[in-house]
## 1
Amino acid sequence: MSVLIQEDDFDLASELTALRSGNSKVGAMVSFVGLVRDFSHNETIESIYLEYYPGMTEKALNKIIAEATERWSLINVRVIHRIGQLLASDQIVLVATTALHRGEAFAGCEFIIDYLKTAAPFWKKEQTKEGSQWLETRDTDVKRMEHWHNDTVRKSA
Amino acid sequence: MSVLIQEDDFDLASELTALRSGNSKVGAMVSFVGLVRDFSHNETIESIYLEYYPGMTEKALNKIIAEATERWSLINVRVIHRIGQLLASDQIVLVATTALHRGEAFAGCEFIIDYLKTAAPFWKKEQTKEGSQWLETRDTDVKRMEHWHNDTVRKSA
Amino acid sequence: REHLKITRETADVPTEASTLAGLLAWLRLRGDIWAQELADSRVRCAINQEFAGLPAAINEHDEIAIFSPISGG
Amino acid sequence: REHLKITRETADVPTEASTLAGLLAWLRLRGDIWAQELADSRVRCAINQEFAGLPAAINEHDEIAIFSPISGG
């Protein structure tokens, strides 16, 4: 169960290898990688820039992981979130889970990224030659997060 | 969109790198790896052995992928399933998806592995010194597959 | 599968076995172990590499597969 | 954030600003841009690095954070 916030890129392969090693009960590993999409929707954008709130962000992520492990029987969890300047196709975030069975690994992974999007203090801005613009929370992210409050969802998987 | 059935192990890192490259619109990549759990539930088991139905199994997997891409807007899909003798902690199966947004990548990945478990002809047996035993379809796998027939699920994500 | 010790066989089936249900019934006549392993509720069938239900018709030269429960992944 | 050009400030707040709602109201008195950016509906707050609602009480030496909408991942 570990959280890392860093400017550097992460090596997906070694993260996943480390995550599943050391416990031979692991039957399922699910990973999510969020990537910077190209800027074809607005070609003046040259990069994005991510900030966080040192101290609080780590706490918020650990709290999200704790809630996930309370809901589902997860063997291991890894969250890495990058900050600073990122270009198109760069990796932004990794959420990976292992469990005995896939239902738990899937649910835990999706829950963590859905909560991260709305409850972990990160801010993203798009940078153009002229300046930059902070992004708003996406409505669809709020809806996805709220979906987990639903009682049938709480108990499934 | 490609399917591979092979005895050899697969390199998760290069598979995922290949999957996301070549399309800068990819915003989300989700992967599932199924692993052989240890045999602590029955220590006489030494390995498992997987068979398939050449021709039909590939067709069945391609059909599952086609249905997933019809339901969700997936950019790329990769399925690799191993056959032959496998030991504890070995990788059995990879399902990986890319999409613009994570909802589609998660749903497509989970749908494909759920259908694979019940609708792709693979057979698994547990091997002990004394002999071997073919496994039955797990009830929980059938339930997970049926869940996708639900109308609200069909339209979500 | 192991119980029947046969993985592939080419057979001339009687005309009354013109559906999967009919074929299974005919094969079960071979005796105890066949009757037990090929119970309608235990097997799934494919015709020419596509899943097919018990009422499905069988035609000449069709490739019929009778499966024990599948368990991949 | 960029609009206010301040990322961190240590301030003596009047006693009537003893809740987050009170603090926001007091900060909005600083003028136009503050009033606009710090509308109750736009911001989220944290006290000592934990999310907190507008009625939450503020105590001496608390670390208060006022966020614009978050957008990570």
## 2
Amino acid sequence: MSENFGFSDVEASSGRFLTYLEAIAEAIAQEMKRDPDVLVLGEDVGGDFGGAFKVTRGLAERFGDERVLNTPIAELGFTGMANGMALMGLRPIVEMQFADFISSAFDSIVQFAATAHYRWGGAIPWVIRAPSDGGIRSGPFHSQNPEAWFVHTPGLKVVAPSTPADAKGLLTSAIRDDNPVIFFEAKPLYRSIRGHVPEGEHLVALGEAATVREGDDVTIITYGSMVHLAMQAADAVADVGVKIVDLRTLKPLDTEAILEAARATGKVIVLHAANRNAGVGAEVAALIAEEAFEFLDGPIIRIGGADTPVPFSPPLEDAYRPSVADIADALKTLAAY
Amino acid sequence: MSENFGFSDVEASSGRFLTYLEAIAEAIAQEMKRDPDVLVLGEDVGGDFGGAFKVTRGLAERFGDERVLNTPIAELGFTGMANGMALMGLRPIVEMQFADFISSAFDSIVQFAATAHYRWGGAIPWVIRAPSDGGIRSGPFHSQNPEAWFVHTPGLKVVAPSTPADAKGLLTSAIRDDNPVIFFEAKPLYRSIRGHVPEGEHLVALGEAATVREGDDVTIITYGSMVHLAMQAADAVADVGVKIVDLRTLKPLDTEAILEAARATGKVIVLHAANRNAGVGAEVAALIAEEAFEFLDGPIIRIGGADTPVPFSPPLEDAYRPSVADIADALKTLAAY
Amino acid sequence: MEALTNERRVEGYAWMTLTRAFDDTMVAMWKQGRGLGGAFSQRGHEAISVAAGMALGPDDVVAPMHRDLGTYLVRGMTPDRIFGNLLGRSTGPTRGRDANLHGIGDLDLGIIGFISHIPQALPTTLGVAMAFKMRRQPRVALTTVGDGGYTSGATHETLNMASLYQAPFVLIIEDNKYAYSTPLDQQMRSARFAEKVAAYDIPSVRVDGNDFGAVYDAVSVAVDRAREGGGPTVVEADTMRMLGHAIHDGAEYVPRELLESWERRDPVRAMRSRLADEGILTEDQLGAIDRTAHDKIQSAVAIAEAAPLPDPATLSDGVYA
Amino acid sequence: MEALTNERRVEGYAWMTLTRAFDDTMVAMWKQGRGLGGAFSQRGHEAISVAAGMALGPDDVVAPMHRDLGTYLVRGMTPDRIFGNLLGRSTGPTRGRDANLHGIGDLDLGIIGFISHIPQALPTTLGVAMAFKMRRQPRVALTTVGDGGYTSGATHETLNMASLYQAPFVLIIEDNKYAYSTPLDQQMRSARFAEKVAAYDIPSVRVDGNDFGAVYDAVSVAVDRAREGGGPTVVEADTMRMLGHAIHDGAEYVPRELLESWERRDPVRAMRSRLADEGILTEDQLGAIDRTAHDKIQSAVAIAEAAPLPDPATLSDGVYA
Ligand SMILES: Cc1ncc(C[n+]2csc(CCOP(=O)(O)OP(=O)(O)O)c2C)c(N)n1
Ligand SMILES: Cc1ncc(C[n+]2csc(CCOP(=O)(O)OP(=O)(O)O)c2C)c(N)n1
Ligand SMILES: [Mg+2]
Ligand SMILES: [Mg+2]
């Protein structure tokens, strides 16, 4: 892997350590145990196999094949099927084998699920789990970060955790939420980071950002795997006081937290791995430029992927992807502004 | 219709007047005559019928059924078919019956067409014509403005003309362009505006915005049907000098024109009919907040649709959609800032 | 299955008459400019939509489409609510949010609201059926698709999964000869739907979609099979779209002879004469049913037209549950 | 159709051997950590991919999938270029942009590069066939789909349109018993593909996918029919995926007996013994072919490993044509 996602928390905090992947698996198992209406469906999720990333391994044995349902290759159809299940009060957790394939289910998500409650009161309490993000040499179709399509679509909720604890807490909240929630898992974090995760029921409210580092000079607003790069960049530029806001939920955005941080430092970097152009960072920057204009002491710098498909070869993918150096440079530029 | 799209040009200029729809039809017919590789395909486009909006009426008789091909209801499949045709050098013009149904073809557009040339040099010279926009009481599924999904997707071009002349000139350029171009037609303009349209070959380059009104106080950056509302609002607020930039092409954006206008007036409104949240306007505002920060004399105000599906009933749709009054208020606010 | 007694047939005739009266009135209103936005006439589909509605049990769930007006009515959605939706009133099932018959769902009535995107109702309805199956409930989910919608990918994905999972799922294919302006022979090489679904190992039957009794029996058999764990069934209903795709559409592309031949098979009149010929109802009784239907629709229109439009302040209500 | 002479069979054996040698070497390299990203073994598919490639004419176009390595080789894509792609080198057909066999298109060789999204190659290939038809060119377009891809919506939309338009389109269904970890019986209720495509009025034939001659003949008939204006054909190839879905996958979910029974039907060994038994080639001659294949692959790997990685400055090159 081109990036070190080593998460300081591993050293720092105490207690029970799980990987990002283990935390997700734990949330699913605990919710399936708690609520018989929760089920899992998707390609290869069932049996002993337990999915391409093994997130659902062991669930079939524990909860039965019907609640851990293998589907054919039919994203549009099985996501539409989840819509119907959800209308009847079930809480399907749909696994996209890779986030890249969520585009195959597009109508079932953006046209039906996103609008049913607004139009006629049909609630759709499902969660789509989408293993997203790159940096691990998987090429254009196994590295995508498609969250912006869904953040732009009214009626959806979009979540993107950066730590094991948040992954468990946000997924638990997403499963209990009565709306369609798309849960973007940063697959480069699956096994590369560990963190302290509360053992029992653990809920992190949707729609609440977290300030994961305090600082007075520059704010970095980011989410997912990039939170860890931001941390490393902040460590690297020790003389700059860096506040880091982990959005955690991308829709609805925690506009208050965003604006508060922007007002506090007056200098803002918006960072994500998805391509920069018309990405979620554009909304964050535009929000600040409109609502916190008087507080700005410098341009709002956006850092994100290039406006190309995600290339496969290491030199190209490294050039495509934001790096610690890119972030550090932006921090210096703004600090000196 | 809730809005008056009456286009001053109708009175103002001289010569040959066509509706927005006639201008589009003329571009298609002229390009089909000029280049035997150009063909039209989609639902109900053929025969005497000529499509839901009658844009392709008469083409089948003139150019034969094979070049004006009726398709089954299979957007994913017939757009994918257009990909293959285009790889062989044909130039299919794919009609989506309504822009709202473009989501059904999503994979064929954002995964295949958008990436083929980058990945292995396979050029995809098609145009998708997408009748978009609302204000005409058509409800959530016949009123959408989905351009942001495609502006965020690397490898596509996105066009959204506001006048008959631009519609002809941009469509002609789009057909001749060697890349996949999504051409968003503002269907409320189809028959509601007329304008002078050059008779013969008429090309408007992709990627070039147009300043359609000069003014020193505030810039409105917009496109499509909203250009006409911006004009009306500027007329209504006579004491404010309003510069209006019609983007015309949304991808690639004419960043120079945007920044130049922002620098010139220091006060900017970004306006579109699509829902505001993470829309194209967010990219425009973020670009300005990053590249023209020192020139800004006020917050960048974004005006767009609400973060809801497009509602059907007049009072709701009018509340959903930007109005002349909304724009005029923003002009006054910024002018007074 | 509830046997098709004469009482049931009379009931069916009453629903079909109400459906036709609704349709006639709607068409007239829209032509007079008393409408809002577009509207779809279902003329010719009365036997299918009413029989489907009547063949279902009270706890079953249905996702009717844009030509299935009769199903909504039979399931208990009142004409004034539907007109309220057509006219964008706050009293319609979508409170002015969705257009014409789109989205007029009401789970209390076991009705799923559909979206334009064809054929989204199929996988949704399969999911409803799967919920019944997983909960071991003796309930059935039914939806319909047109000849046009049949060619769309989600139809294939749904039929394959419905068969794979043996879900209590019933699909009625409304073969009404056109998808908008496109005739069957420009949609597929052959249109023997019942044979096509053999590819999914799903039993199917083709019926005269203008014969109420035939549709009722076929759908009842399918519903019973699904309820008893026998899995999905497809009912292919042979019918004709008698007016344009929507009211703005004059349908000049449809050969007049074709319409005339089907006009002779009008489902409402056919039912009426059967009941008369078999001496089940007198002309007076039939006339009374017709007048009742007409009066119900007139008062429904009055209620809907008098109803308020939604308050713009409610624009963002209900985006989230 | 070019008759399957003994010369052609020997040629076929050489291509199958080269394909197998490539596959063996690739698997070994990836296990040794000499690979980059993931890789798909096609072991067991050699007869299908080579026969398909050989049955096509020089001007025909093919969109091979992730198990069709032999087709790329037969069409003239050299092993060093393919290894170059697998290793992210600037010398691969995608210049380091796409991964493993994805996107290794080259229109000069009549090859379309595929994307992951299954089954996108189907509508794309239909479009190629439609271009040939519209231009009145005697050319054919061929692609393949797995048992898994068959259940996806675009397969249905493509087969329906291919039949409707009578396009010169050939589809090979590679029934290799699994879609990743999911066996046939969890994908569809029955897997008689040849019967299923009757729903589209498309002629089809089921062949032993491990028998080079059988596949060659069936595909040749299909290609000839398409070229002569007879429209599309589906060839169902009965075969087995002998290794995991990709190299990281141990495929513990596949019963060992199933693999053993198919191992006895190994297409490369089967072809080899036929040529030996029929006295067409001596053991020495066969050994020479095997050694040549081995050597070609070794030098291809050397070339690819020595090739440069792409220059990061080229990141944005080629986004637009
Ligand atoms: C995905 C999609 N594409 C296009 C349309 C536009 N459209 C609405 S109804 C219709 C024709 C449907 O024909 P059919 O399925 O036969 O039903 P019918 O109207 O004949 O009852 C079309 C093309 C749509 N609703 N959805
Ligand atoms: C739309 C989509 N969903 C999921 C995947 C992930 N995926 C890649 S190959 C594969 C299995 C394909 O099975 P099959 O079509 O039988 O081909 P095989 O690999 O067996 O040759 C899956 C699920 C994909 N590529 N595309
Ligand atoms: Mg029809
Ligand atoms: Mg397979």
